[in-house]
């Protein structure tokens, strides 16, 4: 599990506790998800390569380093993944965005695809697949496979809350991929919801239930 990174910063713990509260409304829920995603992004982008550049300070010329964020693509899994988008773009504003629509079949729990729209992936592109809840892992594995089929090679997974079962499924299928999560919760219940979790992130983001 060396590829699993739980970013348990005190500020993240504080904000997740508010998000878990059933009385937290969609406006505050969205704002907190954006803030936590920014904190996660800081850690998840640590391995991004940089290039040298000349910088003229008020004193003299010096050498700096820059990230080529035009070679970064964010792929939110619709619809809940959209809630993490602004948090990443606040730090890597020139990143491209791809969209992948997946829903979980309530009977089989398998991922069902309904929409795909990606930018072109070059060999040295860095792709971040984001979804607030990593539950069974089936949707995330499906997303990884779709992104790989479109040519992506450097993939990182980001989630707000993860279940051990989902982490295991993704880790076994894709041991080379780093997973960054803000919380590793206890388990899944018999309906494949994360316990203690925070309910359905999509419904809480958009008040659809």
UniProtKB/TrEMBL annotation:
UniProt GO molecular function: GTP binding; magnesium ion binding; uracil phosphoribosyltransferase activity
Domain Phosphoribosyltransferase: 6-208
Regulation of protein activity: Allosterically activated by GTP.
Enzyme Commission number: 2.4.2.9
Cofactor: Mg(2+)
Role, per record: Catalyzes the conversion of uracil and 5-phospho-alpha-D-ribose 1-diphosphate (PRPP) to UMP and diphosphate.
Name of the protein: Uracil phosphoribosyltransferase
